[in-house]
Structures are given as structure tokens and as C-alpha cells.
Amino acid sequence: MQKITNDFDGVTLFYLCNPNNPTGTITPKNTLSHWVDNAPKNHYFLLDEAYDEYVANPNFESGLAFIKQGNLNVLVAKTFSKIYTLAGLRIGYAVGSKELIELTERCMSLSNTNLSGAVASLASLQDTEFLEYSRLSNLRSRQIVGTT
Ligand SMILES: Cc1ncc(COP(=O)(O)O)c(C=O)c1O
To answer: Whose CA is closest to atom 16 on ligand 1?
Structure first.
């Protein structure tokens, strides 16, 4: 039987959906901090936070905290498809260090963002009333199906 070794030392991308889809489970901030703080410099973390606005668990913390602290290896991906309900407009964004964003942009097509999505997403960031409505209706739905 082939032995599984742990001696790969090349560039590594760790993709984590937090909170996870479809389970809704979270990776607690302490666990995530431990991984990020102890990772080699050539290990990168892509944190998919498509659903973070729905989390009420105090053990959850957005990966934005790492970026605010100056961490260069963390990229947080966000979408307007979920709580903002703009899925059809294909709009989202990533947050990370200047260096990481520049590297990421090299792999993106020029037509990445459409005008309708750009305008609607900027407007939806101002619409805190709708955001709260969207969050509460999701919460009520989860209560009805018994997942909270
Ligand atoms: C965990 C997760 N990340 C990202 C996405 C992508 O969303 P979109 O491509 O609509 O921006 C989805 C959509 O289902 C998702 O469930």
C-alpha cells in the first residue's frame, strides 16, 4: 500500500466554506486562527463567506479580521447572491491584501462585472432594512424546518 506522506512544501491553497454549505456548520475562530497563524508563508487561505450574514454563533468570526491585522495569506470571498438576493446578476467580491488581489485579478476576465450587477450591489449595500428582512425571513424559515 502506498504510504501517505506529508512532505509537500509547494504553494498550497486551503479552501474553506465558512459557514459551510450545505451543513450550515461553522469553523470556530480559534480553530481558524490556529491554522492561519501556524501555516507556512506559501500556504494561502481562501475563505468563502457566502453565508456569513446568517451566522449568530459567537464562535464565528469573519476572515476579514485576519486581513485587518495585515495577514497576507487570507482572501475572503463574498457574494451578493445570498442575503442580498441578487443571484441572477452574478456579482461578488474578494477582500485581501493588495498583493493578493493583484495576483487574483490576473486570472479574471475583463468582463467579470456587469453594469446591472455593479449598480444593484452598491444600492443593496445601503439598504439595511432589506438586509434585516432577508436575514429574519431566513431565520424564520430555519425555525419552521427546525434547523436552529
Ligand atoms: C458556499 C457558496 N459559495 C459561493 C457561492 C457562489 O455564489 P455566486 O456564484 O452566485 O456568487 C455559492 C452559491 O451557491 C455558495 O453556496
So the answer is: 21
Q: Looking at the 3D structure of the chain, how many domains does it have?
A: 1
* CATH code, 30: 3.40.640.10
The pTM (predicted TM-score) of the whole model is 0.92
Q: Which is nearest to 118 in space by CA: 74, 84, 68?
A: 84
Residue 4 has pLDDT above 80, yes or no: no
Q: Does the beta carbon of 121 sit less than 6 angstroms from any atom of ligand 1?
A: no
| pLDDT tens-digit series, residues 123-142 | 999 999 999 999 999 999 99
User: Nearest CA to 84 among 136, 128, 124?
Assistant: 124
The residue range of the domain holding 109 is: 1-147
| pLDDT > 90 fraction of the chain, expressed in percent and rounded | 88
